[in-house]
Structure formats: structure tokens, C-alpha cells
Amino acid sequence: MEGQQDYDLLVIGGGSGGLACAKEAAQLGRKVAVVDYVEPSPRGTRWGLGGTCVNVGCIPKKLMHYAALLGHMIQDAHHYGWEVGQPILHDWEKMAEAVQNHVKSLNWGHRVQLQDRKVKYFNIKASFVNQHTVRGITKGGKEMLLSAEHIVIATGGRPKYPTHI
């Protein structure tokens, strides 16, 4: 199959940049695939489509910030005629669960958007074989080869954890 490609475009990375690239190319009629795999952090944190911002960065932070603002507003509400029962209690676990449920809904939404645009999604760890071919390894260790005329690397970055402190 020399010269024949599985895809017109293969995007490595399922964060905001990679997803935007894949969706746009698919809308322009290209055959597109996205490969995305996140190595768990040293603490075992894993996440789905959407990248750092959606899963462990901007979005969860903004939701927690909003929850804190609500707490302050409730405390100030009586100054403006609102009768709020005392004491005002907060359930951290309930808030954390609400944040995680919102993140999961965004992960699912990204999958649906890819499906709607006929973008194939692979949850595999990718490495280059050559300029047009990527080897993917699934969580279970299964290997697959994917090829494309063009490959975009949109993996973002991860912090480097020191081994000795």
C-alpha cells in the first residue's frame, strides 16, 4: 500500500487545539482522525478529551471559583433583604462531584462533536514510525498503525516532576 494513506489528516492530541484543527479539517471534507492518550500523573490523575484546560485546569478552576463567589454572595445576601438560614454550610464533596460531572459532560460533548463530523477517535499513545505513519498503543498494549498525508502534533505540555528533592 505504498503511497496510500488511511487519513488525510491525523491529529496527535485531543486538547482544544487538536480538536479545533480536526473538526475544521473534517468540515472542509478531509478524512480525519484524532489520537489522544494521557499518561497518568504521579498521583494517578487521568482525564479524557479536551486537554488540560477542560479536565484539570481552567474549567474546574473557574467552577470552583464560581462556587466560592456564591458562598460570599450568600453571606452578603441578608444586607439586601434576603433571609438565608444560618449557619451557611458547604459540602466540599458535593461541589467536587458537580465539577467532575460537568467535566465529564464536556468530554462526552467532544466525542459527540467528533462523531458528528465523522472524525475517528483513538484513545492510544502515539509515536512516529515515519513522516506519514504513527504507531499507536492502547491501554491494553495492543498496537496499531495509522497513516496520513499530514500529521499535526497538538500535544500541549506537561510539567516535569523532579525525581529527587
TrEMBL record:
Question: A GO BP term, please?
Answer: cellular response to oxidative stress
Question: What terms describe the molecular function in GO for this protein?
Answer: flavin adenine dinucleotide binding; glutathione-disulfide reductase (NADPH) activity
Q: Which domain of life is it from?
A: Eukaryota
- Which InterPro entries does the record associate with it? FAD/NAD-bd_sf, FAD/NAD-binding_dom, GSHR/TRXR-like, Pyr_OxRdtase_I_AS
Kindly state one GO CC term assigned in the UniProt record: cytosol
Question: Residues in domain FAD/NAD(P)-binding?
Answer: 7-162
| Keywords attached to this entry | Disulfide bond, FAD, Flavoprotein, Oxidoreductase, Redox-active center
Asked whether the keyword Disulfide bond is assigned, the reply is yes
Name the cofactor(s). FAD
Entry keyword annotation includes Oxidoreductase: yes
> Pfam families in the record, alphabetically?
Pyr_redox_2
PANTHER family per the UniProt record, alphabetical:
GLUTATHIONE REDUCTASE (PTHR42737), THIOREDOXIN-DISULFIDE REDUCTASE (PTHR42737:SF7)
What is the similarity comment for this entry? Belongs to the class-I pyridine nucleotide-disulfide oxidoreductase family.
- Official protein name in the record: Thioredoxin reductase 2
Chain's gene name: TXNRD2
